[in-house]
Amino acid sequence: MSSSRAIALMMLVSSSSAVAQGGSASTPAATWPDRPIRLIAPVSPGGGGDFSARLLAKSLAASLRQPVLVDNRPGGGGVLGTALAAQAPADGYTVLWVSGSHAISAAFERNLPYDPVKSFDPVALFAKLPFILVVSPSLNVSTLPELIARLRANPGKLNYASSGIGSISHVGLEMLKLMAKVDMVNVNFKGAAPSIAALLSGEVQMVMLGPLSVKPQIASGRLRALAVSTAKRSPALPGVPTFAESGVPGYDIASWYGIVAPRGAPRAAIERLNAATNAAADEPAVREALAEEGAELVRGTPQAFDAFLRAQVAQFVALRGKVDLQLR
């Protein structure tokens, strides 16, 4: 073998070893991201979840210096878009926007095409937020006790809108059915915007959604807010009492937003996305925009988000035994 060929072979072996050990400039740690990132949002355009996803996507794009493209895939309480993300390449260029419904589905959906915990790597928890129960003024109820009385007098005759089985808007009102001993019928829609349209048209009589989705209609008088889902009142709508204040003691359910990646995504991508999401929580524009949702911004590690998600799943698995018979 000539000396030149020997030197070339040694350089190739050295380069390959460096790549294997993560020391080359061409490793994911050094090059990720080098193209646009797809953020699958399993919610319909126009709702609070979509707004928050786009808000974070804009901040991430600035931090990562690559476009972050929101891909809305609503339906099935988030199952359709989530299944799509679970099947995506684990290369860091497809991530999933998740909410409280992601944990609920682990407890209430029997045949999911993915595992809400095992199919994904947690990236970052972004925010926690309440939901608001609203009704049409044509229903002629002004408080939650009045609504409960109407439901008891008309079992099974009033409808509520939800974003699908396993969504917060579904489980939240199934909890009300159980705890207040009332009956009403769930009608599924593909997200917040069509749910509100159905409520305004009279197809359904109530819905439970995030403040951002319903505040304009509340302000205009087209919808009436009855109760907030969390243990404390929402800063976004401080005049709206909690369920507990309105005669349903112990009622407390909240949603949240975060990002996960298909299982096996590069660690470098997860760490950079986590850092960029934490940085977004420090931006005044992001804080001010999410204040409209009554959202509490969260900063933390992927490991902390993993623990949070597992605790959420455990909470709803425990609830399932109490609520399961109420599901339609």
Give an overview in words:
The chain is an alpha/beta fold and 328 residues long. The chain folds into two domains: 35-128 and 255-325, 3-Layer(aba) Sandwich (D-Maltodextrin-Binding Protein, domain 2), CATH 3.40.190.150; 132-253, D-Maltodextrin-Binding Protein, domain 2. Helix content is 44%, strand content 17%. The chain has twelve helices and eleven strands. The chain has helices spanning 3-20, 28-31, 48-64, 79-86, 100-108, 144-153, 168-180, 192-201, 211-220, 267-280, 284-291, 302-323, and strands spanning 37-41, 68-72, 94-99, 120-129, 132-135, 159-162, 185-188, 206-209, 224-228, 255-262, 296-297. It has a six-stranded mixed sheet, sandwiched between helices. A five-stranded mixed sheet has the order 7-6-8-5-9. Helix 5 (100-108) crosses helix 12. The longest helix has 22 residues, at 302-323. It is globular and about 65 Å long. Mean pLDDT is 87; it is low at 1-27.
Keywords:
disordered N terminus, 44% helix, five-stranded mixed sheet, single chain, globular, 12 helices, alpha/beta, 328 residues, D-Maltodextrin-Binding Protein, domain 2, six-stranded mixed sheet
